[in-house]
Amino acid sequence: MNISEARFAGSSTRVAGKPKRLLPEFAFIGRSNVGKSSLINMLCRNGRLAMTSSTPGKTKVINHFIINDSWYLVDLPGYGYAKVGKQGQEELKNIIRDYIHNSEELQMLFVLVDSRHDIGSTDVDFIAELGENGIPFAIIFTKCDKSGPNVLEAQIGRDREILLRDWESLPPMFRSSSLNGSGRDEILNYISEILNSTK
Ligand code: GTP
Ligand code: MG
Questions:
Q1: How are strands ordered across the β-sheet holding 106-114?
Q2: pTM (2 d.p.)
Q3: Which mutation among 53, 59, 84 tests ligand 1's pocket best, with the greatest number of atoms within 8 A of CB?
C-alpha cells in the first residue's frame, strides 16, 4: 500500500473526543518507549508526524493521524511507566481502556514489544485482557535493528513460548525497525488486507 498523505487529525483523552469523521482505525500500544510513535513515523515516512522521545512517557494522549484521507493510524500513550506515579498510571490506563473498549472503528490493535527483552508480565497481562474482551490484536517486535539475526530469532522464540503458556495459538507477528524501515511493507500490507475485507 502506498501512503500518499498523512496528517495529524486531533488529540483526545476519551473516545468521545476523537475526530468526528468516523473511519477505520489501526492503533499502536505497548510499554512506554517501545517505539510506538517512531513506528507511525516510519510507516508514513515522515519523521516529524508523531512526537518521539528518548525519555519514556512522551505520548500522554490519543493522537489520530489520517492516512490517504480514508483511515486512521492511532498513537496511544504507553503503559507501565512507573515515573508518572500511581495516579498518573491509572489515568493513562483509563485513557487506553476507554479507547480500546469503546472505539467502534478500531480494526486492529498492534501491541508493540521490544525485540531485545523477554516479553514482560505487563505485556502478558495486557494481552490476556485483550483476549478476554475479544479485541483483535497483532504483535510487532520493535527495534529489530539492535540485534543480530540469530539473537533476534532466539528472543522471539522465547517470547512465543511465554505467550503459548496462556494461548493455544499465536496472533500475527511482525518484526520492525523504525531506523531502517524493516517490517514496513508487511505491516502496511496487513492493514491493506483488513481494509479491503471490510469494504
Ligand atoms: P512513549 O510515547 O513515551 O510511550 O514512547 P513510544 O513508544 O512512542 O516511543 P518512541 O517512538 O518515542 O521511541 C522511544 C525511543 O526509542 C526513541 O529514542 C526512538 O528513537 C527509539 N526507537 C524507536 N524505535 C526504534 C527502532 O526501531 N530502532 C532503534 N534503534 N531505536 C528506536
Ligand atoms: Mg509515543
A1: 6-12, 62-67, 71-75, 25-30, 106-114, 137-142, 173-175
A2: 0.96
A3: 53
